[in-house]
Every structure is written in structure tokens, then in C-alpha cells.
Amino acid sequence: MRALTRLFCLMFATLFSLSVYAECRQPSLRIAVIPKKSMEELMKDYQPLLERLSDTLGIPVSIVPASSYESVVDAVVSGGVDIAWLGPASYALAQQRDPRIEPFASLAIKNGYFTPAGHHYQALLLAKREVAGDLEALRGKRGALSDPASTSGSVVPNVEFAAQVGMPLSRFFGSVAYSGSHDKSIDALLEGRVDAAFVASVRADAYLNSGRINRDTFNVLWRSERIYYDPYVFRGNLCAEYKALIRKAMLENQDGLAAFLASQDASSIAPVSRAEYAPLLRMMETRPGG
């Protein structure tokens, strides 16, 4: 019955959007997502959203596998994908390369132990309680970042934390390595391969909610200023008709996206614009080496 309903919706959307096809001539929609989780998990999480977009647009919608934040930036800048879910800093990098790239939506985060409810999150510096109880105990220790283009896992710590301790991370820690993702940083911390890790507060909450850590596992030894949450962005030359249909699919009548929102620990999807990310863009433009 569900398959039949989706078939009728797809037929209706196809007829409704013939004028869109005439102008856009696009046979499918491609999405790239920053690799905060494994690709297998992402595919499962995103299925309800892919179905909603496909029903609304009347065309197939798929996720393009991505191995790093940079690969997602490259994909949306080159036009290889139509929508990208980026971290705030990776959006800023993409927008610097193509000013037409436009943020249009962001998740509203549920209240968590590490993250307050709303549209903002923070970068955290975590250490196991038995390893360090304050920042001084981390001097000369092994630190982990996630990805060079990650906002909370690299960009903000390299500016805000470095300013607080009065030196670059490479001088404060004995060694600093990139793990590839927030989850890999937390895993390295749990396994004792690093002594401290900079991670997004929302990923720490995800580990807590899944039972992989408890409230006593880590000390939070530093918090960044609030960061507006990750945006969904359009590629620079996506046509206006498609943008309007995508906004409709993602921002209106979100009851059908409950499973997707639950997988993201989010309560809703909210509209955003460039203004929400302007402070971070200014910080990146003025930081040393920026």
C-alpha cells in the first residue's frame, strides 16, 4: 500500500513539475553529506529524506559517497552534486570558491547533555577523567582533531583554543593528528590512542544517547563560543524552480520526516541564509594564515 501511495505521489509530482524539467532538464538529484558517520549509517538515516525529495521532485534522488569534508566541498563547487550538507567552516570554504553557493536549511538540535536545544552547538575538548582534570595536565600530551575543514574539529579550536592558551595547538600538545571524523576522534580517545580530542558537542551527545559513553566518561576541559549548526546548501547554478521544490520538501509538513530527524537527534529543519554563518566566515578570513 505504501509503495502504491508513493507511486501515485511520484506520478503527480512528475506531472506537476513538467515545467521545471523543461527549464532545468535534470534527470536526477544528487546529494553529498559530510562523513560524520559511516556511509552505511548515512544511507540508512537519509532514506526518509531521499524519498520525500524524490516524491516532491518526481525524479530519483541519491547520496554520493564522500570520504572527507574536502571531497564534499569539491563536489558542490564543481556541480557534481546539487545539495550538500556541510559543516559551517566547509560551507565558508565552498562559498569562497563559488559565491553563488547558498545555504537554505539547518537542523534544530534536540536538548542534550553536551548541547543545549536550538540551532547552535559547540566545539569541545574532551579527555578521559583519569587522564586529565584540567588543561595544564594536557600540555605535551597527544591531541586529536577530526578533519582540516571541520568547524568544531579543527577550524574553531585552531583559532579560539589557541588564543586562550597563547600558542598554536602544535606547541601546546606533544602531537596533534587528524582522525578523519568526530566519531573516529572519540573512538581514539576511548581506546587510549590519544589523550584529548576536539569534537562537536552533538557527536558527544550521540555517543551518550547510544550508551557508548556515560556522563562520567570524559571531562570537558574547554568549550568554544556557540556555532550555528551545519547548513544544507544548493550548488551555485541550481535552477530556481528546483530550489523552491526542495525548500518545500524539506521545510514544510515535516511529520513525514520524523525518522530522519530522530536519526539526527533533531527536532525540525529550519530555514537559514548566509547571515547565520557570516561571523564564522569573518573569523576564517582574519585568522592567521586565513
TrEMBL record:
The keyword Chloroplast is annotated on this UniProt entry: no
Pfam families: Phosphonate-bd (PF12974)
One GO location term (cellular component): ATP-binding cassette (ABC) transporter complex
Signal peptide start and end residues: 1-22
InterPro entries: PhnD
GO biological process terms, semicolon-separated: transmembrane transport
Keyword Signal: yes
Keywords, alphabetical: Signal
SUPFAM superfamilies, per the entry: Periplasmic binding protein-like II
Family to which this protein belongs: Belongs to the phosphate/phosphite/phosphonate binding protein family.
Protein name (Swiss-Prot/TrEMBL): Phosphonate ABC transporter substrate-binding protein
UniProt lineage: Bacteria, Pseudomonadati, Pseudomonadota, Gammaproteobacteria, Pseudomonadales
